Automatic annotation (TrEMBL):
Myosin motor domain boundaries: 145-880
InterPro entries: IQ_motif_EF-hand-BS (IPR000048), Kinesin_motor_dom_sf (IPR036961), Myo9 (IPR046987), Myosin_head_motor_dom-like (IPR001609), MYSc_Myo9 (IPR036023), P-loop_NTPase (IPR027417), RA_dom (IPR000159), Rho_GTPase_activation_prot (IPR008936)
Species of origin: Sparus aurata
Pfam families, per database record: IQ (PF00612), Myosin_head (PF00063), RA (PF00788), RhoGAP (PF00620)
Residue ranges, compositional bias (Basic and acidic residues): 1025-1048, 1061-1072
GO molecular function per UniProt: actin filament binding; ATP binding; GTPase activator activity; microfilament motor activity; zinc ion binding
Biological function: Myosins are actin-based motor molecules with ATPase activity. Unconventional myosins serve in intracellular movements. Regulates Rho by stimulating it's GTPase activity in neurons. Required for the regulation of neurite branching and motor neuron axon guidance.
Protein name listed in UniProt: Myosin IXA
GO BP term (any one): establishment of epithelial cell apical/basal polarity
Residue ranges, compositional bias (Polar residues): 1049-1059
Binding site for ATP: 238-245
Membrane topology summary: Single-pass membrane protein
Length: 1407
């Protein structure tokens, strides 16, 4: 990066050492085109203190992990760098795919290169280590040859001071401490150390904990104001071009960031917008600075006791008006003119008659452009800043019109008339109509005011033409007065916008931090009155610095009686007395000369010589030159007395004021008020009385109209009466009245001179600074050529000398800059002191002697304790260690108490469990004993019964056997008798059944169990169907008597078989009549089993996916895969039966890929949107359907839908959003799914990162500030979250509009949706999250209410009218009966038509 543009071109080369230098990301070195790689390596070794015994090489790389090109020792790195793209030279990111760098590598003895790991990995580790150091988790790295605080220099002299600053500057460390004083060296280049990361880094840190920074000073001042409840001020001083304005901007930004804590209220926005506006109208390019402040400003930011900004005030000092009409070489006019000419639109260019800068006399005197500036962008930035401050578009047009009038006024040129020597004329009369149009004055009056003056004598009025030189002076004076009045008006409007009305009523204490950004010390080739006033202001600031640092501190040391050696310093009291101490002060003599009409520049110079000849602080040139020399603290400066008197009494002529007062523009007339505050107050009072009279007149007209009484003559309007009742006797026009009053201004008291006003404002500033605790920021210009990162030793050393930095370092190094009163010391360090230590000198001295402190690092005075910074830090470290020890002790005891309570509870629980287990075991043992005893008794009874039965069977069988044997014998005998014809057998005897014994039918006793078994099988076959009928048929067929019995009893077996066959035919006829019913029941049972299996599968899916956390849902997914095998035929062989198809389910569990999945639930909103679709499709579809069909449904979001339906719809939307038909679902199911989508978001719509900001905004007392804070946090949401949130809020407003029908108010909607879109992070304490429920609900309620109030009544009526039609459609849609179970199975399996009929018939039970 270029540093010099001369014959010797210097560049800053960044070399990344990698693992060779731990903790260092890159090492910047200065090199030229001819600098070789060997020389660059030598400088890196010297800077980083590397091991010189090793060999190093330089490598060029173009991307991470890419090929490295090793440079030869004679190669030139700068020449290689010049071949890089411009983007690579300007933007150096720490990570990226393509990044050009120079790497330092170590070369091994064998010639190979030691790479030492990946550069990208090393950069990440280094960056992580740096962040941990910033957070205090790792110790700060030791300084490598430089010190962040100059008080720590081992050797104190000018050379060591300069070397330390130069070493840090070359490492791009532009900030250095001198105790609590901050030194800033302007690098003339923007460094990336001012982003929000650094704002958080320096929050609530003491000076010295981190690397020096401007943010550290602002943070210390802010917290000191809150802790001590005292006002603070930050004084920024330095030469022109040293970076004071930029430092002020950084301070203001940091102070507002500390106040707002995440969101900016209206006051902070106005403060931030006031800076660019004041810079545009008050800054210009000079020879030393491209953005030099040509005025001084003191910004006082007022705070509440809570630390939030309450208001602000801006005080301006001495605007350089002469720059408007004349600029020195290589300088420009104020920025706003160039912004307007470059950024105005075509319409504005025509309206304001704008031209090119070269065509204006006030702009064409020297240069027009500045390197690197974008005027169009700056104009847009100015427009935005003016809008933030509160300038309306009409006001901005009036301001730009006045600026154009000033430029055209400067183009007016004069010439002498040919026929008269004492009169003049305008060379270019075409400019007059343009100026009169822009100022809205009459062209004739403008011509008269610019060419003649009016003088009133006794009894007559004279009109005298101007001379040629006088006319140019009047023209320039008019332009300067207009611009000065405009600048004062802008400052007044900014202060009015920053004014807090509560400050005028309440008596609460107001804390403030003032930031002084005043013009720096200037020494040009031609120094005039402006430079004289500017340098006098710097003398006063240097005197204030000396008083605070040297004089007051040393006097305090002497009064406290501590041992101290005085340090000499440069006292500039004599120079201040020369300029401002009456009666012989130079300002006083200048005012006297301005009162004499015959005074000249020479008479002024002679008076200076007579009064101050011999004073050591003033000199006069030896040659006859109208100038004098002042010996300032920063050196000698020569001032020319030319125009001193004119600039000191720069008042506009009365006829010019009268001309501007006659303008038709109220804006121009308001600028000409003598006092802007009085003008504004009069305007407010006038508006009040106008409104009061208008209300009274309206009331009278209303009363007359109501009673029927009418006036004969209308009342004269108030505007016609204005001024008429006062001046009607004089018969004067408005212009004549103004002219007459202004022509007699000499009879009134003259206004104070510019020098008197400037001294008064400086005295007020010093009084304000004296009432505050100061912090000093010393800005130093690094080089006079405004080149980036160029350090000029002589220029920097000169600034260090005249600011007294060496003496400041010496007194800070040897002095005691930390002071405590005895009471404050005991109160602050009571933890380190023994108990009962009194706030006395002896007690504190005894306690300090016992601590491990350096003897010369502290002293105890009469009423105060004096500490050096090192001892204070050591005491703070001891205090921190002791407090942590006590905290750990308390935590240990508290945790022990908690563990003890936990142990006692666990012991009691264990005892209770043991008692229960003992009782359980006793009960179990008793049951075992009882069971064994009962089993024993039952077995004994069984054995007795078994023995009795066996005995009975044995007796019965023996009896039957004997009976049969006896009967057989008798039958044989009878048969023989029959055969022989001896016996006749009767039929009754043949049919008689003698098998009876003891009342039992012994012939049927054995067969009775078989018949009962046959009947049970017949009953079971009637319920089990045709398959069991065939089995029972075979069983009945095989159930016959034994063969032996058949052979033995042939006559008896025949009738038995007949009975069995008859029974079998009867049992076969009965199932044949119920075949259809059995088949239907069997089929129904199989379909119910399949339905149960489907429901169980859905439960599995809901358990693994729906009930898990969103992170688990992203990792795992359970999907149902349709079967790929052909359907199987049912056992019945019915091909049309859908239940015969085999339905297979496969659970696929795998890694979830959000890029390839179509999931809609549990996915980041950004993955569901794109450039064409700003709101997720699922959200748009659900909201549109609810608004079309559920807007008038009672309790639309209060009632819940069916759980199975919700799961089914959620799965369907996850599968394919476009193909889902929402008409198949109840409206409450759709509303529940929509709420479920909001709850499943990994990061809610109102994100976790902004949760605390929403809670903090809701904690504001003022409702307007609270609402503004909530909307400012909402504006910080990402585009996807913001678009989705806007759609949701609009939907909720539409729901709330129909509260009379749906019974859903804004409060009810906020209660329902607040947990969905504004959830607390997991890191927050649960008790705190419960306490924040009211705030989160109120946040959403206020957002809905505000949008609700903005809805027009016509649109509301239209919505209601359209909603009535939708209610009918919704009721018609809801009247259709739907089966809950069928819809649950839809999208999972393709069930058969028979199942659909079955489920519809049983929908009530499954629902």
């Amino acid at each position: 990066k270029s540093i010099n543009h001369g014959s010797f071109i210097d560049f800053t080369v960044r070399i990344y050492p990698g693992a060779l230098a731990e903790g260092t990301i890159y090492c910047p070195i200065s090199a030229r085109k001819t600098t070789t790689a060997a020389e660059a390596i030598e400088r890196v070794i010297e800077r980083l203190h590397l091991d010189r015994t090793r060999c190093y090489v330089l490598a060029e790389v173009k991307e991470f992990g890419g090929e490295e090109w090793i440079l030869n020792p004679c190669d030139c790195p700068v020449q290689r760098m010049m071949l890089w793209p411009r983007v690579a030279l300007e933007h150096r990111a720490l990570s990226g795919a393509e990044d050009y760098r120079f790497l330092l590598r170590q070369k091994n003895l064998d010639g190979s290169i030691h790479y030492g790991g990946s550069l990208q990995m090393w950069l990440q580790v280094t960056e992580e280590r740096r962040r941990m150091q910033e957070r205090g988790l790792l110790p700060q790295p030791d300084s490598q040859g430089d010190h962040a605080d100059l008080c720590h220099l081992p050797e104190l002299n000018e050379r060591s001071l300069l070397d330390n600053l130069r070493s840090r500057f070359r490492q791009e460390k532009i900030y250095t401490y001198v105790g609590s004083i901050l030194i800033v060296i302007n690098p003339f280049k923007f460094l990336p150390i001012y982003n929000p990361k650094y704002v958080k880094m320096y929050d609530n840190h003491t000076l010295g904990d981190l690397e020096p920074h401007i943010y550290a000073v602002a943070d210390v001042a802010y917290h000191a104001m809150l802790q001590r409840e005292s006002n603070q001020c930050i004084v920024i001083s330095g030469e022109s071009g040293s970076g004071k304005t930029q430092s002020t901007n950084f301070l203001i930004h940091h102070l507002t960031a500390l106040s707002q804590k995440g969101f900016a209220s209206g006051v902070e926005q106005i403060i931030l917008g006031a800076g660019p506006v004041l810079e545009a109208f008050g800054n210009a390019k000079t020879a030393h600075n491209n953005n030099s402040s040509r005025f001084g400003k003191f910004i006082q930011v007022n705070y509440q006791e809570s630390g939030t900004v309450r208001g602000a005030y801006v005080e301006k000092y001495l605007l350089e008006k002469s720059r408007l009409v004349y600029q020195e070489h290589n300088e420009r006019n104020y920025h706003v003119f160039y912004y307007l000419l470059a950024g105005a639109s075509e319409e504005e260019r025509k309206a304001f008659h704008l031209k090119k800068p070269e065509e204006y006399h006030y702009l064409s005197q020297d240069c027009f452009t500045v390197e690197g500036e974008d005027l169009k962008h700056d104009f847009e930035r100015l427009q935005l800043a003016m809008e933030m401050v509160g300038f309306l578009p009409a006001t901005r047009r009036q301001i730009f019109s006045l600026l154009s009038a000033i430029l055209h006024l400067g183009n007016i040129r004069y010439k002498r008339k040919t026929y008269r020597d004492d009169s003049i004329d305008i060379c270019n009369p075409e400019e007059l109509p343009v100026v009169s149009e822009l100022l809205e004055v009459k062209e004739e009056m403008l011509f008269e005011a610019l060419t003649t003056r009016k003088t009133v004598t006794v009894g007559e009025k004279l009109i005298v033409p101007y001379k040629l030189s006088e006319a140019n002076t009047v023209r320039d004076s008019m332009a300067k007065s207009l611009y000065s009045a405009l600048f004062d008006w802008i400052v007044f409007r900014i202060n009015h916008a920053l004014l807090n009305l509560k400050d005028l009523v309440e008596t609460t204490k107001i804390l403030s931090i003032g930031v002084l950004d005043i013009f720096g010390f200037e020494d040009y080739e031609n120094n005039s009155f402006e430079q004289f006033c500017i340098n006098f202001a710097n003398e006063r600031l240097q005197h204030y610095f000396n008083q605070h640092i040297f004089k007051l501190e040393q006097e305090e040391y002497r009064s406290e009686g501590i041992s101290w050696h005085n340090i000499e310093y440069i006292d500039n009291t004599g120079c201040i007395n020369l300029i401002s101490k009456k009666p012989t002060a130079m300002f006083h003599l200048l005012d006297e000369e301005c009162n004499f009409p015959q005074a000249t520049n020479q008479t002024l110079l002679d008076k200076f010589k007579r009064q101050h000849e011999g004073n050591s602080y003033i000199e006069f040139p030896a040659v006859m030159e109208p100038a004098f020399i002042i010996r300032h603290y920063a050196g000698k400066v020569k001032y020319g007395v030319k125009d001193f008197r004119e600039k000191n009494t720069d008042h506009m002529r009365p006829d010019i004021v009268a001309l501007l007062k006659s303008s038709k523009s109220a804006f121009i007339c308001g600028l000409m008020g003598i006092d802007p505050s009085a003008t504004f107050r009069w305007a407010v009072l006038r508006s009040y009385f106008r409104a009061l009279v208008a209300f009274r007149e309206a009331g009278k007209r209303h009363t007359q109209k109501k009673t029927g009484v009418s006036r004969k003559s209308p009342r004269t309007p108030l505007s016609d009466l204005q001024g008429k009742f006062v001046f009607e006797d004089f018969n004067l026009t408005l212009h004549d009245r103004i002219t007459k009053s202004l022509l007699h201004l000499h009879k009134k008291k003259k206004p104070p001179s510019i020098s008197a006003q400037f001294q008064a404002s400086l005295n007020k500033l010093m009084e304000t600074l004296g009432q505050s605790e100061p912090y000093f920021v010393k800005c130093i210009r690094s080089n006079a050529e405004k080149l980036p990162l160029r350090f000029n030793d002589n220029l920097v050393l000169r600034q260090l000398r005249y600011t007294g930095m060496l003496e400041t370092v010496r007194i800070r190094q040897s002095g005691y800059n930390i002071k405590y009163s005895f009471k404050d010391f005991v109160h602050h360090f009571c933890v380190l002191l023994p108990e009962g230590t009194s706030a006395t000198r002896e007690g504190i001295q005894q306690c300090l002697d016992q601590l491990d402190l350096e003897p010369d690092g502290y002293q105890v005075g009469k009423t105060m304790v004096f500490l050096r910074e090192a001892e204070r830090q050591r005491l703070q470290a001891l205090l921190h260690t002791e407090v942590l020890r006590r905290i750990i002790t308390l935590q240990r005891r508290f945790r022990a108490q908690l563990e003890r309570k936990q142990f006692v509870r666990m012991r009691e629980a264990s005892v209770c469990i043991q008692v229960q287990m003992w009782l359980y075991r006793r009960c179990t043992a008793a049951l075992v004993i009882q069971t064994a005893w009962r089993c024993h008794q039952a077995r004994e009874a069984y054995l007795r019964l078994y023995a009795a039965v066996k005995q009975l069977q044995r007796i019965s069988r023996g009896f039957l056997t004997r009976q049969r044997l006896r009967e057989r014998k008798e039958q044989q005998e009878k048969l023989l008798q029959v055969q022989n014809g001896q016996v006749n057998v009767s039929p009754e005897e043949e049919e008689e059944s003698p098998e009876t014994i003891m009342g039992l039918d012994l012939s049927t006793w054995e067969d009775r169990s078989c018949e009962q078994r046959e009947r049970s099988l017949q009953i079971l076959s009637s319920h089990d169907g045709a398959v069991k009928e065939e089995e029972e048929g075979r069983e009945h067929t095989g159930t016959t008597e034994s063969p032996s019995k058949a052979h033995s009893e042939p006559a008896t077996s025949i009738p038995t078989s007949t009975v069995v066959v008859r029974e079998r035919s009867r049992t076969l006829d009965e199932p044949s009549q119920k075949t259809t019913r059995a088949k239907r029941e069997s089929r129904r049972m199989r379909e119910l089993e399949q339905a149960k299996f489907s429901l169980e599968l859905l439960k599995v899916r809901a358990t693994t996916g729906g009930a898990s956390s969103p992170s688990e849902e992203r990792r795992w997914s359970v999907e149902l895969v349709p079967p790929t095998t052909p359907p199987l035929r049912s056992p019945q062989g019915t091909p049309d039966s859908q239940s015969s198809k085999g339905i297979h389910y496969v659970c696929v569990v795998g890694q979830f890929d959000p890029e390839l999945s179509s999931r809609q639930f549990g996915v980041e909103v950004s993955r569901l949107t794109n450039d064409e679709r700003t709101v997720p499709l699922v959200v748009e579809k659900l909201i549109n359907y609810i608004e079309m069909h559920g807007l008038y449904t009672e309790g639309i979001y209060r009632k819940s839908g069916s759980t199975n339906k919700i799961k089914e719809l959620k799965q369907g939307l996850d599968t394919d959003v476009d193909s889902m038909n929402l008409d198949d679902y109840n409206i409450h199911v759709i509303a529940s799914v929509f709420k479920q989508w909001l709850r499943d978001l990994p990061n809610p719509l109102m994100t976790f990162e902004l949760y605390e900001e929403f809670i903090r905004a809701m904690g504001l007392q003022d409702k307007k500030e609270m609402i503004r804070g909530v909307y400012s946090v909402i504006d910080q949401l990402s585009r996807t979250h913001l678009n989705t949130l806007e759609r949701l809020i609009f939907h909720l407003v539409r729901i709330a509009l129909q509260e009379e029908t749906n019974r859903m108010s804004a409060n009810a909607l906020a209660i329902v949706f607040a947990p969905c879109i504004l959830r607390c992070p997991d890191t927050i304490d649960p008790l705190q999250s419960v306490q924040d429920i009211g705030k989160t609900t109120t946040t959403l309620f206020e957002t809905i209410s505000i949008q609700f109030s903005k809805i027009d009544s016509d649109s509301t009526d239209f919505t209601k009218t359209g909603g009535n039609t939708n209610v009918k459609n919704v009721k018609r849609h809801q009247s259709k009966p739907e089966s809950g179970l069928c819809f649950c199975l839809r999208g999972v399996v393709d069930v058969t038509s028979s199942m659909m009929k079955l489920f519809k018939s049983s929908s009530a039970s499954f629902s």
